[in-house]
Amino acid sequence: MESKTDAGPASMTNEELAAIEDEEVLNKMLDKATDFEERRVIRAALRDLLKKKRDKREQDRGSRQQDLRQQGLSKGGTIGGAVSIGRASMNQLPPTNKPPGQSSASAGSKASPAVASAQKCPPAVAPNLKNVKQMLLDWCRAKTEPYEGVDIQNFSSSWKDGIAFCALVHRFFPDAFEYSILNPNKPRENFQLAFNTAERLAGCPPLLDADDLVRMNEPDWKCVYTYIQEFYRCLVERGLVKTKKRP
């Protein structure tokens, strides 16, 4: 007997979609949906689910902090400051969480990391680069569409806080980390999380360096493009992306 989820979103009510608590199930339904209205309904259900998870996590965190305070373990708000902040409040955060001198200091132990990073980004000179580049950009935009705080318009400034990288990786590996607690004011941590997860679960080589990226006003589009192209190919090799045309 065919289940509700197998029957497709067109035969499901908003209440039935809202009752689905598995993010991966909604992602698969979104990938299969072709009708605009179906995709709109699934995206709304997916956003509601992410918000529900975020609110639940914030509620649990508040309860834990209150318990710690009652036990005398919270000292001057240190615990609260050490906890990652939910996506709902990220837009109000000041950019002071990213000291300008921090990346330079951490890079001092490396030998010309910026040069090494530049060598990893070959110039894109393929004749059909424009078409392939746009196809890959459209793919990234479609896969990250349900994610809050992500608006991919290019391969440079749209990726500078690391959130877009995390959203793209999280789309294929939703159990790897909690997207809702990521902080756009901590780009280095976001870059490292995305690259490490992609390497560990997809076998994608770490072509980009987090320290190099945070030193740039905007990432080099050729570097980002090369990395995303490699990530895509790794997904195809593992059967996580099924397509006849490969960027």
TrEMBL record:
Residues 49-114 are annotated as: Disordered. SUPFAM superfamilies: Calponin-homology domain, CH-domain. Keywords: Coiled coil, Phosphoprotein. It holds the Pfam family CH. Residues 130-236 form the Calponin-homology (CH) domain. InterPro entries: CH_dom, CH_dom_sf, F-actin_Monoox_Mical, SMTN. Residues 56-67 have a biased composition (Basic and acidic residues). PROSITE patterns: CH. The keyword Coiled coil applies. Residues 103-114 have a biased composition (Low complexity). Residues 89-102 have a biased composition (Polar residues). Belongs to the smoothelin family. PANTHER family: CALPONIN HOMOLOGY DOMAIN-CONTAINING PROTEIN DDB_G0272472-RELATED, SMOOTHELIN. This is Smoothelin-like.
